[in-house]
Amino acid sequence: MNKMTKGVLCTMLTATMLAGCSSNNTNNTGAANDAGTGSSVAKSVTLKMFIAQPRFKEQYDNYIAQFVKKEKAEKNIDVTVQLEMPTADNASQILKTRLASNDAPDIFALHAVNEIPSYYKAGYLEDLSGQPFVSKLLDSVKPSVTTTDGKVVALPLETLSWGYLYNKTIFAKYGLTPPTTLTELKAVTEKLKANNETPFVLSYKESWIPQLVLPLAVGGMMKTEDAEFVDKMNKDEGSFTEMKSAIFDVFDLINENGTAKATEVGGDDGAAAFAAGQGAMWLMGPWYAETILKSNPDLDFGVAPLPINDNADATLINLSASTSLAVSPTSKNKEVALDFLNYVLDDTDSNALFQAMKFNPVATVHTYEMYPWIAEATSYVKAGKSVQDPAIPQSVKDEVGKGLQAYYAGQMTQDDVLKALDKAWKSYNKVNK
To answer: Where does the record place a coiled coil (predicted)?
Structure first.
């Protein structure tokens, strides 16, 4: 989710071929033994991966390099990995185009809650139920990558407990605590402004960032007032007008008390601004922790639920599994692709990977210590102050992101945005019924 680029970052990690390899090696997935001589001949495999997390390029590069060495040592396979890392704004459309044109990557990332249902229905996901990693998944995580007919079709990378980020040092300086209602949030905002502090960092250059208000608002309302909202929308019987106040009351408050030039600031720049204390709060999840701490390793920040109205019961942490790894059923290198997926939850090595990316533990083999901001978010969950991420189609989230960018810029009204969302969901229903 780095700032938008039109290009695609590619990483080539190549294991050295054995000196005796002949030119007629093919992309087979097993190491062959010459039956006549007993000599071992390495096979060459090119594995294509598509993961829209360019901010973690270094971590993936390192882990893939470890996998390449492991595959060579254990199976005598020379693996070349082509890693595509587009930005989040571009990734979904690029991937859908590839899949529809029979140009699927061997391994690709998708959003567990938003995309697994439609991708599975389209036949784009390999059944992974029998893979070794499945038995390691935490009971709280496994359902997010399991289809309605009981098949595990992805490996979860990011499980998220999020709301917004706040600067604990700034809050402590003025005796503030995370607000539980919208009125309290307004009071916190006024107290910060009275002390010449900017309440919010705004970063709307990438459309996925402003859309974060949507699942928070919908989740809070479904937990307290409108439990059937998603079901109604799936039946063309609902409307986002039911969510108007929940979305825009808090979004307007944030926009009126934030940093300037939001549409010119992407995720990375927003992380740098938050790390520098340019705003006390940021509508963002802890998935940006690694980027924030790279800018300011000493920053003390927390995660709190975002108030959407004056009902404290609607102020909730969002629980979700987002970025997950799937394997294409059409992969010609399926054995090696599955080897990599299982290596992602290796009993030993995966601890360092998940800790380096500052992800929550997802498996029983994860024994690393929980980060403070994760522990804080978890405390809300344990107190019953959380809600499962509502199953909003990705196309609708894409639409709200663009709509809220335009709304912030004065190019769309609230009603314009809501009508666009209703239309996007109805279009989704037509395709997926």
So the answer is: none
